[in-house]
Automatic annotation (TrEMBL):
Cited SMART domains: AAA
Lineage top rank: taxon: Bacteria
Name assigned to this protein: ATP-binding cassette domain-containing protein
Classification lineage: Bacteria, Pseudomonadati, Bacteroidota, Cytophagia, Cytophagales
Alphabetized SUPFAM superfamilies for the sequence: P-loop containing nucleoside triphosphate hydrolases
Amino acid sequence: MAVSIQHLTKVFGTQRAVSDISFEAEKGRITGFLGPNGAGKSTTMKMATGYIRPTAGQVLIEGLDVTDHPLQTKALTGYLPEHNPLYLDMYVREFLRFIASAYGLKSAGKRVDEMIELVGLQRERGKRLSALSKGYRQRVGLAKALIHNPKVLILDEPTSGLDPNQILEIRQVIKDISVDKTVILSTHIMQEVEAICDHVVIIDRGELVANDQLSVLKEGLNHTNGIIIEFEQPVDQSVFIRAGFEPQPFGASAYLIESDRSDLRAELLRLTSENDLPLVSLTKSQQSLEEIFHRLTQKTEA
Ligand SMILES: Nc1ncnc2c1ncn2[C@@H]1O[C@H](COP(=O)(O)OP(=O)(O)OP(=O)(O)O)[C@@H](O)[C@H]1O
């Protein structure tokens, strides 16, 4: 596995910021790392990139422990921290050349030009970093994270503070580069996860509360959720109530019926047919990722 996080824990003083977290991230896949404010996302990412040491547990990058092999794992990893530190007095090209030389890259000029093209900085290449908008500074941060062609990319809220167009552009860049890399990105934006992530890890108060493929997560949590049953016109709900259901109105002539019963759809079909109800459709109610997130991160509320 490209990135393996094993029983990772970080304690600051008396606070457990990250508590026994384990998950893995695969090549060619974007893993969304979610959690409410203060959940421990940035702390986990800093440990994964070797910027702070875990209190317990370990992070393996391509099988190498980040604490034991700091140089090798840094060479394998590109990191865009939450506050994207840049030398604002430098010019775009000059800054990236400086980073390329710090990595000891051969053909640094060519590599810098490739990065400028990849992240869409051609028109800004001659500008001073202080003159760039937040979105373009974020692109510089991304170019910096990618310049040494790392196998693993760790991005802490890469689209935070960007305007809607910039968000779409940066997402597309991340998607394009993820084809042959392992990407872990933290975000607060659920549409972002739905748009680009394959896998979702959710933490809350330092603890892991979900670790699944996006589709599996949505499917699993929708399992017991309910069916929306729609008729041509409003119907007498007592048919369903007598059968032990609790229909809730869901629009003019539709009802949401929630139940754990595995044969829910079959039973509803039988009831409608036996009672001659004018059925229009029977669909599984889909929870949005936002609702799933809310539900999972509310569970641990005191
Ligand atoms: N250096 C530190 N010293 C003490 N406490 C810290 C330190 N860094 C983080 N924390 C605490 O650890 C907890 C997790 O913080 P972290 O920044 O990892 O959360 P986050 O999920 O990234 O939050 P956000 O979404 O708000 O950026 C918070 O309660 C924070 O105050």
